[in-house]
Amino acid sequence: MRTAVLVEPHQFELEDRPRPMPAPDEVLVAVRDVGICGSDVHYYEHGRIGDYVVENPLVLGHESAGEVVEVGEDVTTHEVGDRVALEPGVPCRRCAHCKHGDYHLCEEVRFMATPPHDGAFTEYVSWPADYAYELPDGVSTTEGALCEPLSVGIHACRRGDVGTGDTVLVAGAGPIGLLVMEAARAAGATDVIVTDVVDEKLDFARKRGADLAVDAAAGDLEAAVDEYTDGAGVDVVVEASGAASSVQTSVDVVRRGGTVVLVGLASEATVPLDVLDIIDNELDVLGSFRYKNTYPTAIDLLAEGVVDVEGIVEFESTLDEVDDAFRRAMDPDVIKGMITLDS
Ligand SMILES: NC(=O)c1ccc[n+]([C@@H]2O[C@H](COP(=O)([O-])OP(=O)(O)OC[C@H]3O[C@@H](n4cnc5c(N)ncnc54)[C@H](O)[C@@H]3O)[C@@H](O)[C@H]2O)c1
Ligand SMILES: C[C@@H](O)[C@H](N)C(=O)O
């Protein structure tokens, strides 16, 4: 099977690898769509993300969906021909976190495209059947692949307890921020303010329904939020830019008693933060890491037409064009590229 392998930064090789055999509890999936995530681009450019270093050739891609072509002998839940979205993190199922229900915090998780685990820029992936979620008619495999970043948005909104009538500020209009916006609307938020520092991203957010889109670099964000909320501040901020300065700004624009959810991986591990602000205003400042139990929700929201994910896809390429696709995805103005396969 054709497989795009990152052999060193900025260099993919298309290899012919043996097709995997599904284990008894797995399904073999012919991959149809794989999103290019910011983390894939980061590995492509730098060969590492923090402590995760690409020491051996790695297959990138963790936002994937496809069609079941074979089922393991113990699998009773899937049939050949089912279209499925693959949740890319499979936990150990035995540790305290898994037993506690926080399987996304499992330290033994096998997460696609995170060294040393291969991802989905390949023709076939064999994956545990219970992490392969059937897509109903009407939900495309492109949408199935985008259940992954949508899951990040759903989990962040759950962490922030976003609810009916809330005003939510989403910092960063990349794919994650835009899908946080979708998830926040689905959770009942009536007002969504989006910030970014790139005009094209702000325009894109406006076209996708942001009630207010503000340039965070222009220096008047707090005033703009004050004006919009009559001085109250927003109920929930979801920080999805990863910009260090945006962490304090998030604390500045949330209302007293409100919640700040940190999703963006701040480029600097330590960021200045006015702790008295947090105490005096009794803020909840929470981390949000990946997701748990979000795929069924994401698929339901897509099937009901409550969220739009395909609208963030700006280009599609084939596996043979993976190098070009990654070069294109490095453009800061581009929101999302997809690799499509037709094996
Ligand atoms: N916590 C998690 O589980 C999780 C999962 C996926 C991604 N992430 C992180 O979330 C962040 C967003 O991911 P993405 O793929 O959308 O990234 P992205 O780089 O495509 O988008 C980030 C956006 O933030 C904008 N930005 C930069 N500085 C800003 C500022 N000061 N204020 C507002 N916006 C600003 C950028 O212009 C860009 O549009 C990244 O840091 C990523 O690593 C976290
Ligand atoms: C959650 C996922 O989208 C992220 N890129 C990660 O590897 O953690």
UniProtKB/TrEMBL annotation:
Gene Ontology MF annotations: amino acid binding; L-threonine 3-dehydrogenase activity; metal ion binding; NAD+ binding
Enzymatic class: oxidoreductase
SMART domains on file: PKS_ER (SM00829)
InterPro entries from the UniProt entry: ADH-like_C (IPR013149), ADH-like_N (IPR013154), ADH_Zn_CS (IPR002328), ER (IPR020843), GroES-like_sf (IPR011032), NAD(P)-bd_dom_sf (IPR036291), SDH-like (IPR045306)
Pathway: Amino-acid degradation; L-threonine degradation via oxydo-reductase pathway; glycine from L-threonine: step 1/2
Keyword Zinc among UniProt keywords: yes
Keywords linked to the UniProt accession: Metal-binding, NAD, Oxidoreductase, Zinc
Cofactor(s) annotated in UniProt: Zn(2+)
Pfam families according to UniProt: ADH_N, ADH_zinc_N
Enzyme Commission number(s) from the entry: 1.1.1.103
Keyword Oxidoreductase applies: yes
Reactions the enzyme catalyzes: L-threonine + NAD(+) = (2S)-2-amino-3-oxobutanoate + NADH + H(+)
Enoyl reductase (ER) domain mapped to chain residues: 5-341
One GO biological process term: protein homotetramerization
Family from the record: Belongs to the zinc-containing alcohol dehydrogenase family.
Protein known as: L-threonine 3-dehydrogenase
Organism (species): Halobium salinum
Lineage: Archaea, Methanobacteriati, Methanobacteriota, Stenosarchaea group, Halobacteria
